[in-house]
Design goal:
The chain is α/β, with parallel strands linked by helices and 237 residues long. 41% of the residues lie in helices and 12% in strands. The protein has a 6-stranded parallel beta sheet with strand order 3-2-1-6-7-8, with helices on both faces. It has a two-stranded antiparallel ribbon with strand order 4-5.
Length: 237
Amino acid sequence: MNLPHSKQSPIWLFDLDNTLHDASGAVFWRLNNSMTDYIQEHLGLPRDEANQLRVQYWRRHGATLLGLEKHHGIRAAHFLAQTHQLPGLERDLRMPASDRAALKRLPGRKFILTNAPAEYAKRVVTALDLASCFEGIISIEGMRVFGDLRPKPDARMLRVVLARHRLPAHRCVLVEDTLANLKTARAAHLRTVWMQSYLKHNPHGPEAGAHLHRRPAWVCARIRRLRALHAAFIPSP
């Protein structure tokens, strides 16, 4: 770990899915099906076409929602509420007990920074017994810039969010599983940590099949367990 120590405690920005818990096993397949259902119902498409459109918009715009909003006038709030209901989600959420304990001991202010909606994020952190760890949840609803939805990895959104919450970039550390989000954050002078724990067997998302043994220039550190953060920022006695 090459993260420098600071006289002031760091401000942690944690991604949620596949960073704090195993979303590949519990969430992503449910969410993909739910989004395809939504497109099939509201655009009147056969299921195969609806699924293809979901993937196409995700690849082109970085989020299926952005394509639906731009090309079909779908309301973001309606889409997010309908697609993130995910019945039975809580029983399948998984997080190592050692990671939970390490997160609770980690010094500094802590926020969730997620492209997921707020209600979903609250469900997940509550089910994982993490609600008391975080000062706030910065969700996709708070990522509009001049009226346009700008989720991660949008650089303008990141600057706006930091300013809104009065978070100095040089004190912030973004812990993420997605390299594109880390690249934007590093360019904005945040420190960056690539969480790899759930990526090796992940068939979903932009990091599927990523070379986990490399460390791009915009990644300050790679970790597989959250206790590695604790070791980096709390000197041994």
